[in-house]
Design brief:
Keywords: Acyltransferase, Transferase. It comes from Paenibacillus methanolicus. The protein is an alpha+beta fold. It has a single domain (about 5-155), classed as Gcn5-related N-acetyltransferase (GNAT) (Aminopeptidase), CATH 3.40.630. About 25% of the residues lie in helices and about 30% in strands. It contains four helices and seven strands; from the N terminus they run E-H-H-E-E-E-H-E-H-E-E. The protein has helices spanning about 15-25, 35-40, 85-100, 110-115; strands at about 5-10, 45-50, 55-65, 70-75, 105-110, 120-125, 150-155. The termini are far apart. The protein binds acetyl coenzyme *A (ACO). Acetyl coenzyme *A binds near residues 74, 86, 87 and 110.
């Protein structure tokens, strides 16, 4: 029987799964760490992907301005990468952004090809307002950021 993949908004019952997933990538320097308390506070910004009811991926939308939002904390658990679930999560996040009336979606990432396949293009980091960099104070690489900025403008 084929596995059922679904995307949905996260709830407080997902905090532990999100914490574990993000912590794993934070240790590899791919994501910023998020405490359980912070996740609880920001849970309304998160979406999750489930396979047969088990959380295998997540992503979040962080509002940066009246029309600009950032995709953050996007990742799959081991064994679930490369199965098209990331594409589904991004689609879901873009739909969420649209419903919130936000038409410019950006991300800072190393997975540039993945975002390009989802209709984003590489842009100069300098085009974003100062506000974008609020989270960077928590990043070990803040003075040597090598992530690439990508942007998608929604119709
Ligand atoms: C803003 C941020 O949060 S950036 C952090 C991004 N997260 C990470 O780097 C964590 C590690 N990676 C992952 O968790 C996942 O691989 C993700 C989120 C990047 C992509 O999710 P997946 O489910 O693996 O991607 P999916 O299977 O939908 O792949 C879609 C396409 O992107 C490509 N792709 C997937 N991951 C990557 C990557 N890291 N770099 C480049 N291309 C990629 C795939 O080859 C695939 O191409 P295809 O459609 O021609 O086959």
């Amino acid at each position: 029987m084929q596995a059922v993949v679904t995307c949905r908004k996260a709830g407080t019952q997902d905090v532990e799964a999100l914490f574990t997933l993000i912590e794993g990538y934070a240790r590899q320097g791919i994501m910023l760490p998020r405490s359980r308390a912070a996740l609880e506070r920001m849970i309304h910004t998160f979406v999750v992907a489930e396979v047969d009811g088990v959380v295998v991926g997540c992503g979040s939308l962080f509002k940066l301005g009246t029309d600009l939002v950032e995709i953050r904390s996007l990742g799959m658990t081991d064994g679930y990468r490369g199965l098209g679930i990331g594409n589904k999560l991004v689609e879901f996040l873009l739909q969420e952004a649209k419903e919130q009336g936000l038409h410019k979606v950006m991300a800072l990432t190393y997975a540039v090809n993945f975002f390009e396949r989802n209709g984003f293009h590489v842009v100069n980091k300098e085009i974003f307002p100062e506000k974008v960099w609020t989270d960077c104070v928590n990043c070990a690489k803040q003075h040597a950021c090598d992530e690439i900025a990508v942007l998608k403008v929604l119709n």
